[in-house]
Amino acid sequence: MATVLDFAVFENFKVLIAFVLLAVMFFGVLPKTKLLGESKVVYALVAILVAVIFAMNATTVEILFRIFPWFTVFALVISVILIAFSLFGSDQDHAFSVIKTNPTLVWSVIIIGVIIITVAIGSVVGNEVMNKVQNDTSQYDSEASPHSTNTGDAWTNFLKTIFHPKVLGLILILVIGAATVRLLASK
After folding, report:
1. pLDDT value, residue 50
2. Cα pseudo-dihedral 131, 132, 135, 141, rounded to 10
3. In the prediction, which pLDDT does 153 show?
4. Distance between the two ends of the chain, CA-based, in angstroms?
5. What residues have CB less than 8 Å from 134, skipping those under 6 apart?
6. Can you give the pLDDT at residue 14?
7. How much is the average pLDDT of 41-63?
8. Mapped to the 3 state alphabet, what secondary structure does the chain carry?
9. Segments making up each domain of the chain, as ranges
10. Greater pLDDT, 6 or 40
11. CA atoms of 152 and 144, how far apart (whole Å)
12. Are 104 and 136 in contact (CB under 8 A)?
């Protein structure tokens, strides 16, 4: 039954949607860099060519469709924060100057973006890579340990690896070491 909120019809237009989104995104970003001069025609051609190259590969289209919703939510959160700045009497120029001068905020945005991209790539190609690497899974017993990472699903394997007690201990030691170095360097 067709409903107003039935988005299954868009599955047929994934490549076209990815092409348009990428072309618009690259055409919006490239002129700001001024890498290719001042001609908008050159930027339009480069944006279309890059969008065609990305849209021709099904894996990159799937990765883009995993990335776009998360970056949309991220952009909405940033927009709400900027609106909150303006509600408390600050103008946008002041908010942007605070963001640009505070390296913690800039690095936070970069790290969140890298995490989103990494998780999207891992969720799309993780099982393919895992199946190519694991030629013979019969020699491993998945029930041997409660912390075994031989489950057949890349995301489950990743989570079991990250939350393994030895890895969590290593992360704790690294955090303590980083805090110690920071405290000793500041004195």
Report:
1. 93
2. -30
3. 73
4. 68
5. 150
6. 86
7. 92
8. CCCCCCCHHHHHHHHHHHHHHHHHHHHHHHHHHCCCCCCHHHHHHHHHHHHHHHHCCHHHHHHHHHHHHHHHHHHHHHHHHHHHHHHCCCCHHHHHHHHHHCHHHHHHHHHHHHHHHHHHHHHHHHHHHHHHHCCCCCCCCCCCCCCCCCCCCHHHHHHHHHCCHHHHHHHHHHHHHHHHHHHHHHC
9. 12-56, 58-133, 145-187
10. 40
11. 15
12. no
Residue 121 tokens read as 């790539």
What residues contact residue 57 under an 8 Å CB cut-off, 6+ apart? Answer: none
Tokens of 162: 């990250």
Question: What is the mean pLDDT of the segment spanning 168-175?
Answer: 93
Measured CA to CA, the distance from residue 108 to residue 106 in angstroms comes to 5
